[in-house]
Amino acid sequence: MIHDGLDLERRILQRILDWHAETDLPDTALSLFWSEAPGFFDMAPAPGEDADHCWHRLQDTLREMQKKRLIAGTVTVMEVRDLQVGPRGVLVLKELEFDALNDRKRLLEAEQDQLRTAQKAAHDERDAVFRGKQELVQAQKSLSEVQDRLRDLRDDLDAGRAALRAEQDALAVERDKVSRALDEERAHFERLLAERQAEAAAEQRAASLWRTAGLLSLVAGGLAALFAVSQSGLI
Fold this sequence. Notes:
By secondary structure, the protein is mainly alpha-helical. The protein has helices at 5-22, 37-40, 51-67, 87-232, and strands at residues 32-33, 71-75, 79-85.
């Protein structure tokens, strides 16, 4: 793992501070030979770089940190001795810790914002579900009322149909009565007409007989008068 620039400096500071914190004897000096120093600071050779060049790169970094008073100790060609974090190094680590805390704070605030957003979304969803339930209950109530009205209308329709059938039956009975009465009156009229026709025919025959008898009487009277005249010699 390659670490350069400020990142490498901060890593070296934190590694020295952690080593002193983990050491049972606080006064023990941190001294490393060139062969073990890069591994101690988790520095791997860059591509195409051997261990010697990696050590020289670490040396340059340590000397630069000494100039900045980030660390204290001795850096030689073969080793580093008595490495400690300097006063400015402590400040840098404090700044790093402060920055880390700020980053953590910002992360927590972002997580809180996400949580509030999720809570609001859940609350909105819960409200939507509640409204949906209320709308469903209202819809079911409206449906029940519509069904009740439909049942009432169906009952009214059935009652109207029953009344219509009863009225139709009554009309049929009345129609049969009227039809029978008309048939009886027609038959009675036909009987009267037949009687009248028979009486008229009889009267006509009687009148014809009377007319015939009158003619015969006239003829007889005329013959009698003619006979009397002939007997008297007038003819």
